[in-house]
Amino acid sequence: MRLAFLGLKQAFDYFQIGGTESFVRRLSAWLIKNDVRVDYILYRDKENKKFEYAGIRLSYFVSFNDALKAIEKKKYEHIITIYLLPKDRIKYALFRKNKGNLVWFHFIYFSWPDSLIKRKLYFSEARLFPYNGKLFCISKRQYEYVRKWAKNAVYLLPPVSEEYFLKPEEKPINERIKITFLGRIDPGKGIDEVIEIFKALKNDSRFEFSIYGIHIPEHKESVQVHNWLKSQNDIKYIEVDRQKYSPAVEEFVRNVLKETDIFIQPYQRLSSTIDTPLLLLEAMASLCAVITKPFGNISDIYGKSRFLISPDRFVQDAIKLLQDVSINDLTEERRRIYEQNLSFNFNGENIGKRFVDVLTS
Question: Phi, psi (5° rounding) for residue 38?
């Protein structure tokens, strides 16, 4: 089988760090191991260029037209679309129509826009100009929405690499409870609430707080938080570069989560991430108790837990929970999460097999 992932470079470049990028990168790695030829076709780059990395052919183009010409020259069986600029979608619909059944075209939905209007626009292309392949939905609410009008909807959770998964007896026992935030340090990810909670409990010797932060230089608020974190000494702060993915970065994240007892990720809205947050799944695989808010389908995936906190009084309730939490509580939560992981089975092997089975069905 030969397939390509197509989309905007800024949406899923192999070397960026993010939920969409990790989803496609991990799926590609599994496909390559199972003798599938994988190409990335990315557009809106500064120049046209091609090279191979980790067994994937990476083709970068300045324009969408150049990207489509590249597809014309190759004999792909499947094209999986990630994200296109709105102005390119009608052109792409015509391109798909002209290809007839020579190529199977698929789409992966990663987002759930907050605005009803934006949400309808996001899902409208495949509704107005149907894909002849599958419409993959990474959250249950996406799937329930799409299946009302599309028989080709498929529910597929983001894949988590096997190396993340721990058994309860493999989780380290720390002298102090390690509480970690990892991700973009911007308001949409709830970094302000994280800092408020950490500052309120900084004198509690039972805890060790850490922030592993990605900041976007173009985002003023993110830069302000970054500068403040660098200037203080109460909270451990480690900067992570969003533009530099490598296997070493992946290993770094795995080690951080393995050592973490409680992972905190208080999203202000899920539209700031993919609709089933990959960090939630990675933290669960690593048997971290996760303090977050029950937005979207998070409560379905994570399960019933006191660590899911309503956004109404999130900071106050999170502080109270941490003040009362015990090692026994964490041990019980690990066992419960382990059972959830077995139930949903979102390891890379299972997701990869399901993806190929769906493509070839």
Answer: -120, 130
